[in-house]
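Before relying on records like the one below, remember that each one covers exactly one chain. Contacts with other chains, cofactors or solvent are not represented anywhere in the record.
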Amino acid sequence: MYRSDTLPRVEDCIKGRIYKLRSRNLSYGVWDGKEGFIGIRTKWHDSYLFTEYHYDASEIYGTVADAIDTGIDVPSNIPIKTRLGTVDQETRRDVYFDKPVAEGGKGWCFKDTGEPSENIRPVSIGNNLLKQFLDKTIKELLNTDDDV
């Protein structure tokens, strides 16, 4: 995929703004403010938030070759990220990974106490608010006659 002459520079992309994309896996995505566009990817009948990177932001992984500003911003109360953290599957307490015990680390630990536990079963929390907003907005954009 080649870079379009109309692809805005990384520094000109607006954090929280939705863009119509020409990329490998996304048709629309919201600029994350760093180097990528978060959109909804569908694979094997499963849809999830996925990041495609600006062509100029990553030599190896830059797959967004064009981005057209739709003028639509994600509401400020919705975080612009694919995941909202990790919790223990059973207790739902926030957890973090220190480093493997074999390397002198504690492994998985509870954030509130810092206590490690071999019983922690980490589960990533997806950003459902962003996914729902993008899903609704993309459907509306696809149903308009505007050349966005």
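The mean pLDDT is 91.
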